[in-house]
């Protein structure tokens, strides 16, 4: 019997250690700043942007002008390991008629500060207000992966023209509970973004692009987002499901067309 007690205590101790390790390391897991690549060369007409936040953090970004002066400004939010300049250039390459702005998340060089879900959501509102003078034709929020949660939150707090969410989720807590069901995620997790609740209160048109083979955001979480919105009779302007994974969706041959369709769906 003593060996059984020792075994049980060892298992319990290991579980507590893993839970504590997740608690300590979750910031690095959710915001893996070391994985972000360097900025690409942007078009010559691009403009550098900067915004200082009340806590002293400085957010740096870029704006690439569009070819059509009547189009709304796209404010793009990338994934948690995506360089913001690369995000802006990627969106511009697909929809060059739209002006595109993207900022490096706080704590992601050259932006300063410390990233957190609450800070990123607050920054999104400040960025919207900062860019409003450059958006006489309105603004569309485009969010990729974790950036979809930021874009959804912005759409619930500011009068934007629409939101396009790529590889979205219903909530990060739900993602964590599904991928790590053996941990008390709801108790430990400090970086919740609840896309479903944000969109329930958002009047902006929303379009969704899903990866059916997503290995990072379980497809069930994107479907739960759709089910939750439909249960509230919340209109969805467009839904696209591509047979792709979380990262290779961007090289899917149909992605450019689906993104352009989504932009048209929310802006028309």
UniProtKB/TrEMBL annotation:
Protein's UniProt name: Alpha/beta hydrolase
Gene3D superfamilies: alpha/beta hydrolase
Naturally occurring in which organism (per UniProt): Roseinatronobacter bogoriensis subsp. barguzinensis
């Amino acid at each position: 019997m003593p060996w059984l007690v020792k075994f049980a205590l060892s298992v319990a101790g290991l579980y507590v250690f893993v839970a504590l390790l997740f608690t300590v390391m979750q910031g690095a897991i959710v915001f893996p700043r070391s994985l972000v690549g360097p900025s690409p060369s942007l078009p010559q007409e691009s403009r550098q942007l900067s915004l200082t936040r009340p806590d002293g953090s400085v957010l740096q970004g870029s704006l690439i002008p569009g070819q059509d002066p009547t189009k709304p400004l796209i404010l793009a939010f990338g994934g948690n390991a995506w360089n913001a300049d690369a995000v802006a250039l990627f969106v511009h390459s697909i929809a060059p008629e739209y002006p595109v702005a993207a900022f490096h998340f706080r704590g992601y060089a050259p932006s300063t500060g410390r990233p957190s879900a609450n800070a990123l959501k607050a920054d999104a509102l400040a960025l919207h207000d900062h860019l409003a003078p450059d958006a006489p034709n309105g603004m569309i929020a485009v969010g990729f992966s974790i950036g979809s949660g930021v874009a959804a939150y912005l759409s619930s707090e500011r009068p934007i023209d629409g939101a396009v969410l790529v590889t979205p989720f219903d909530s990060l807590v739900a993602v964590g509970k599904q991928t790590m069901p053996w941990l008390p995620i709801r108790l430990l997790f400090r970086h919740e973004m609840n896309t479903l609740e944000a969109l329930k209160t958002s009047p902006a048109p929303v379009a969704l692009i899903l990866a059916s083979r997503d290995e990072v955001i379980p497809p069930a979480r994107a479907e739960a987002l759709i089910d939750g919105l439909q249960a509230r009779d919340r209109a969805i302007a467009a839904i696209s499901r591509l047979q792709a994974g979380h990262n290779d969706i961007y090289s899917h041959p149909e992605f450019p067309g689906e993104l352009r369709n989504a932009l048209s769906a929310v802006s028309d």
